[in-house]
Amino acid sequence: MARAAVGFKRVVALTGAGISAESGIPTFRDPEGFWQKHRPEELASPQGFRMNPKLVWDWYLSRAEAMKQANPNPGHLALALLQDCFEQVAVITQNVDGLHEAAGSRDVVEIHGSLKKARCTSCSLVFPLDKAGKTPDGLPACPECGRLARPDVVWFGEMIPEEALQRAFDLSASAQLFFVVGTSAVVHPAALLPSVASRAGALIVEVNPEETPVSSMARFVFRNRAGQAMPVIQEELCEAAKAQ
Ligand code: BV8
Ligand code: ZN
C-alpha cells in the first residue's frame, strides 16, 4: 500500500466508535454495543431527551466517566504519528471521546460534537461538562443561568454544525489518501464522506474487522482491529515517505 501513496501530501481519516473499542469504550452496533440495550432514538435524539432527560443524562454521564478512564490506543497513536511524515493529516471523527486529540492529532473535526462539553437548553452557553451546576432534580445545569443543560453532541434528526460539516466535505474532496477506520458507515452525512473522497480520486483504505458499505470502494482493506493494523500501516507509510 505504501508504494501507492508515495508522494502524497494530504491524508484524511474518517473514524468511528471502532477505533476507540480497544480503549475500552463500547461501540454502538457491535454485539455488546450500546444499541443492543437501548433504542438510539430514545437516547440520542432531542425527543428522547425531552421525554426523559434523566435517562439520557444517566447514559451520557456514565459514558463520560468511562471516557475519563480511557486512553488513546495504538490506533489513535498511529494516526497522530502520520503527522510526522505527511504535510497535512486531518481526522474527521464521529466519536465524542476526545481520544484523537489526547493521542496528539492536531487537526480533528468532531462532526458529532464532544462529550467533554455541555450546552444550556435555555441560553445556549457551551461549557465544559465538569463545570456544570445541578438542577433541583440533580441534572447538569448551566453555570450561568442555572437551567437544564444537554450534552454538546449532535443527536439523530439534528444538523451537523455547519462549519464542521463544510470542513469535513472540503477535506474529503481534497484528500489523496482517505482512511475509513472503525465505522459501520451507516450514519449520514458522515457515511457520504468516503464516496466524496473516492469520486475526487482519493485512494481509500478501510480498517475494520467487518465488511461495511465502504468496503467495495476501498483500494486496500485491512480486516483487522485498528490497534493492530494502524501501527503497521503508519510504519510502512512513514518509511516510504522518508525514503523519497
Ligand atoms: C442529519 C451522537 C439532517 C453522539 C450520533 C435514512 C437514510 C439516510 C439518513 C437517514 C435516514 N434516516 C434518518 C437519517 C438521518 C440520520 C441517520 O443517518 N440515521 C441512520 C442510522 C440511518 N442522521 C442524522 O440524524 C444526522 N443528522 O441527518 O441531519 C437532518 C436534520 C433534520 C431533519 C432531517 C435531516 C445526525 C447523525 C448523528 C447522530 N448522532 N451520536 C453520541 O452519542 O455519541 S450517531 C452515533 O453513530 C455515534 O455518533 C457514532 O459515531 C455513529 C456511527 O456509529 P459508528 O461510529 O460507526 O459505530 P458503530 O458501532 O456503528 O460501528 C463500529 C464499527 O467499528 C463496526 O463497523 C465494527 O466492525 C468496527 N470495529 C469494532 N471494533 C473495532 C472496529 N474497527 C476497528 N478496530 C476495532 N477494534
Ligand atoms: Zn444558561
Topology:
Blueprint: E1 10-15, H1 18-21, H2 34-37, H3 40-43, H4 46-51, H5 53-69, H6 74-81, E2 88-93, H7 99-103, E3 108-110, E4 113-120, E5 126-128, E6 133-134, E7 140-141, E8 149-153, H8 162-174, E9 177-181, H9 193-199, E10 203-207, E11 220-222, H10 226-243
Parallel strand pairs: 1-2, 1-9, 2-3, 9-10, 10-11
Antiparallel strand pairs: 4-5, 4-8, 6-7
Helix pairs in contact: 6-10, 8-9
The structure holds ligand BV8 and zinc ion.
Oligomer: single chain
Strand content: 15-25%
Structural class by SSE content: alpha/beta
Mean pLDDT: 96
Distance between termini?
15 Å
Number of helical segments with 4 or more residues: 10
Rg for CA atoms: 18 Å
How would you describe the overall organization of this protein?
The chain has helices at 18-21, 34-37, 40-43, 46-51, 53-69, 74-81, 99-103, 162-174, 193-199, 226-243, and strands spanning 10-15, 88-93, 108-110, 113-120, 126-128, 133-134, 140-141, 149-153, 177-181, 203-207, 220-222. Strands 3-2-1-9-10-11 form a six-stranded parallel β-sheet, sandwiched between helices. The chain has a three-stranded antiparallel β-sheet with strand order 5-4-8, covered by helices on one side. Strands 6-7 form a two-stranded antiparallel ribbon. It has 244 residues and is of the alpha/beta class. Helix 6 runs parallel beside helix 10 and helix 8 runs parallel beside helix 9. Helix 7 links the parallel strand 2 (88-93) and strand 3 (108-110). Residues 120, 122-123, 125, 142, 144-145, 147 line the site of zinc ion.
